[in-house]
Design goal:
Layout: H1 3-33, H2 42-68, H3 70-89, H4 99-104, E1 110-115, E2 122-124, E3 130-133, E4 140-141, E5 152-157, E6 160-165, E7 172-174, E8 177-178, E9 183-184, E10 191-193, E11 196-201
Parallel strand pairs: 3-4
Antiparallel strand pairs: 1-2, 1-11, 3-5, 5-6, 6-9, 7-8, 7-10, 10-11
Length: 202
């Protein structure tokens, strides 16, 4: 075997070796950090799509109102005032309970998954902390592309449950608000991790 053939074989072997190393590094990175959630601008797209229809609907209505005179204009003003009054009378959404109110309640003893791959599953809560993530050693194992290996932790502190995000890639959300520090979890309040949502109940 000539020296040129040996050189080509050595170079080919090195290329295969580095390709194998890069594949292992990419697989470990995907397992540790998961994948980023890409949020689609659905609201902006919906408003942009509905704008032409709103413009076409209001343009023909303007001509009859101008032709009908003062009486039509006053009727239009009354019609527009009714929805505004109804909006003002609409009940305000219930505020999120404060830390003092949460502390006054007895601690939850059940974790109920309300949506996701394990919907309907219940876990009994003791006094120990509960880790949540893709890792097999987690107390609650959630396997999806948006959950990190060690994603979050539930811990009982002064008779109230706290949720702590463990520097996850896609975040932990309490009542649709991202958690950045250990935060009290009120009863029956949704906690979202990846595609799974759960609540704490008595």
């Amino acid at each position: 075997m000539s020296e040129l053939t040996l050189l080509v074989l050595r170079i080919g072997f090195l290329i295969l070796l580095w390709a194998f190393v890069f594949a292992i590094v990419y697989a470990l990175r995907s397992d540790l950090f998961g994948q980023k959630v890409r949020r689609l601008p659905a609201q902006n797209g919906a408003s942009a799509a509905s704008a032409p229809f709103a413009a076409s609907a209001t343009a023909p209505a303007a001509a009859p109102a101008a032709a009908a005179g003062p009486s039509a204009a006053s009727a239009t003003a009354v019609t527009e005032a009714v929805p505004a009054a109804r909006k003002q009378q609409a009940p305000a959404p219930a505020p999120t309970p404060t830390a003092e109110e949460v502390a006054a309640e007895p601690p939850a003893r059940r974790l109920v998954i309300t949506s996701g791959a394990k919907e309907g599953m219940e876990l009994e809560l003791g006094d120990d902390q509960l880790t949540i993530g893709r890792s097999a050693d987690s107390g609650l194992v959630i396997r999806d592309d948006y959950t990190s290996t060690h994603h979050a932790r539930l811990m009982l502190w002064s008779d109230q449950w706290m949720i702590q995000d463990l520097d996850s890639t896609n975040g932990t959300f309490l009542n649709s608000k991202r958690v950045s520090i250990p935060t009290p979890v009120p009863l029956n309040t949704p906690v979202s991790i990846g595609t799974t949502t759960f609540e704490l109940r008595r």
